[in-house]
From TrEMBL:
Start and end residues of each GCVT N-terminal domain: 36-287
GO cellular component terms given for this protein: glycine cleavage complex
Top-level taxonomic group: Bacteria
Protein name: aminomethyltransferase
Lineage of the organism: Bacteria, Pseudomonadati, Pseudomonadota, Alphaproteobacteria, Hyphomicrobiales
Matches recorded under InterPro entries: GcvT (IPR006223), GcvT/YgfZ/DmdA (IPR028896), GcvT/YgfZ_C (IPR029043), GcvT_C (IPR013977), GCVT_N (IPR006222), TrmE/GcvT-like (IPR027266)
GO biological process: glycine catabolic process; methylation
Pfam families: GCV_T, GCV_T_C
Catalytic activity: N(6)-[(R)-S(8)-aminomethyldihydrolipoyl]-L-lysyl-[protein] + (6S)-5,6,7,8-tetrahydrofolate = N(6)-[(R)-dihydrolipoyl]-L-lysyl-[protein] + (6R)-5,10-methylene-5,6,7,8-tetrahydrofolate + NH4(+)
Domain Aminomethyltransferase C-terminal, residue spans: 316-395
Length: 402
């Protein structure tokens, strides 16, 4: 990439190591392995602990090149560590499953059309975010994808609150993401009908003679797909995709820098139980039916606080941040209203170098008074207070097919 180097200061270093309490970087004995583990090793991946799994952080090409590969062509990501869950009402009716899940998420599930997917989040009694997730209406049931680090807690949460009326089933399947502007052409060689899918469509299909579930979605800011595959067939499908000259394997390092440029939250960094959907600027994930005055307003955990913040605003706000110069501002850096560091106003939650935009990018929370785009604030870095400008999110223009 023009204008960037592979130096440590400019590299899009991962911000998610804190999500791996199960093992240290040099202790992989307790880590789980995805169905593609052997493939990662054969491709020369550097493996690290992440959310209880041994996962590829990068391949020999390196994080920078993997990032640009995804933005300009296509890349394959292993996301099999995430949880794939079926929620089916014991009555057999989709409406009953939808209403049950609506008690746990501030999202319109009842109005979700069959074969469509929607972003959502579990909230707690105080309005905090327990996890963010993808929710799909499939036939008479719901198909939900949850974060790996929250998988066990999410299953317990579902079982506790709606287990009496719904069957909660954790599927044993692999999950890969094919992302980038060439993704549709690549996948169309295995299934021509994929070209007709729109953003957030979900379809059953056969890829390389394997029964798969494909969604036109992802977490890179690019057009692309997420593919749920039977575990024993995952390596066959992944290899078939990687045989294409426009496709390369992509690790967690580039996944992190891609989602950061796209202004997408990482659970445990940018959102958690201390942040509400309104503070996190995720109001777009709540449909009119669940808001004040809607057909099914409220009725979810933390509704009183969340609906009040929708009406009156929250005291702080997640914003984009553009540091001056080439040095990134990392997560946990404190933010101040003044260059002397006297008036603390927030904190950076994710930060690194944006290879596509060729400058540092970050996200964080600031007090509402400093949340307007163009506001200059200051980040504390090694005892100095560096100027940072509040910026609109995302930093890149997403290429989703609407």
């Amino acid at each position: 990439m023009q204008g960037a180097t592979a130096s440590e200061d400019l590299s899009p270093r991962m911000e998610f190591q804190a999500q791996t309490p199960e093992a240290s970087l040099d202790d992989t004995t307790a880590l789980k392995k995805t169905p593609l583990h052997a493939l990662h090793l054969s491709l020369g991946a550097r493996m690290v602990p992440f959310a209880g799994y041994e996962m590829p952080v990068q391949y020999p090409a390196g994080v920078m090149r993997e990032h640009i590969q995804t933005r300009t062509s296509a890349g394959v990501f292993d996301v099999s560590h995430m949880g794939q869950v079926v929620i089916k009402a014991k009555s057999g009716k989709y409406e009953d499953a939808a209403l049950a899940l609506e008690s746990l998420v501030p999202v319109d599930i009842l109005g979700l059309a069959e074969g469509r997917q929607r972003y959502g989040f579990f909230t707690d009694d105080n309005g905090g975010i327990l996890d963010d997730l993808m929710i799909t209406h499939l036939d008479d049931h719901l198909f939900v994808v949850v974060n790996a680090a929250c998988k066990d807690a999410d299953l317990a949460h579902l079982q506790k609150h709606i287990g009496d009326t719904c069957d909660i089933i954790l599927l044993d399947r692999a999950l890969i993401a094919l992302q980038g502007p060439r993704a549709v052409e690549v996948l169309a060689e295995l299934w021509a009908d994929v070209a007709a899918m729109k953003f957030m469509d979900v379809r059953h299909c056969r890829l390389h003679d394997v029964s798969c579930l494909v969604s036109r979605s992802g977490y890179s800011g690019e057009d692309g797909f997420e593919i749920s595959i039977p575990t024993d067939k995952a390596e066959d499908v992944a290899k078939r995709l990687l045989e294409h000259p426009d496709v390369q394997p992509i690790g967690l390092g580039a996944r992190d820098s891609l989602r950061l440029e796209a202004g997408l939250c990482l659970y445990g960094n940018d959102i958690d139980t201390t942040t509400t959907p309104v503070e996190a600027a995720l109001e777009w994930g709540m449909q009119k039916a669940r808001k004040t005055g809607g057909a099914r307003a409220g009725g979810f955990s933390g509704a009183d606080r969340i609906l009040a913040e929708l009406e009156k605003g929250a005291a702080r706000r997640r914003v984009g941040l553009k540091p001056e110069g080439k040095a990134p501002v990392r997560g946990h850096s404190k933010l101040f209203a003044d260059p002397e560091g006297k008036s603390e106003i927030g904190e950076v939650t994710s930060g690194g170098f944006g290879p596509s935009v060729e400058h540092p990018v970050a996200m964080g929370y600031v007090k509402l008074a400093q949340a307007a785009v163009g506001t200059q604030v200051y980040a504390e870095v090694r005892g100095k207070y560096l100027p940072v400008t509040v910026s609109a999110l995302p930093f890149i223009t997403p290429s989703y097919k609407r």
